[in-house]
Amino acid sequence: MKHQTLDQLHAVAEVRTAKPVMSRTQRLARWAELLEREPNRLLTALTGTEYRAPRERNVMRGAGSPISVALEDPVLHDEGLKNDTYGEAKRFFELTDYQLHEIVCYCHVGDVMRASRAALSVRAVLD
Question: Which residues of the chain, if any, have pLDDT below 70?
């Protein structure tokens, strides 16, 4: 067997090193922290999440939503957050429909919400 350095291996193969994976609690806490950085930022709420069929609900998204804030973060993106859809947030943050509805749905806040309000909802999931 020939021994090679990581630099030598990078030249001939894709080398992935193990990285720590954030727990569900750590991912949710990170999301809340991101929202708290700009507490007065106005975010888009998603309309009628509780009335949509699961397939339709899973692809729902809104530019500038609380989920979009999470996607903008390189740490959460590197941890595996793929896009800013309802279904992806549900999967990545390991939330129930009820929990995610409480965070992003318009029925609680209208068309827009302050980031601080979304952060409180995320933190409520942690309790």
Answer: 1, 3-10, 13-20
Judge contact between 44 and 60, C-beta under 8 A: no
Q: Pairing mode, if any, of strands 42-44 and 112-114?
A: antiparallel
Reported as a single tens digit per residue, the pLDDT across 111-126 is 999 999 999 999 999 9
CB contact set of 3 (below 8 Å; sequence gap of 6+)? none
pLDDT tens string 66-85 = 999 999 999 999 999 999 99
Q: Tell me, what DSSP letter sits at residue 86?
A: H
How far apart, in whole angstroms, are the C-alpha atoms of residue 37 and residue 124? 18
With 0.90 as the threshold, say if the pTM is over it.
no
Q: How far apart are the first and last CA of the chain?
A: 52
- CB 104, CB 88: distance < 8 Å: no
Structure tokens at 72: 């903008």
Residue with tokens 């809104």: 62
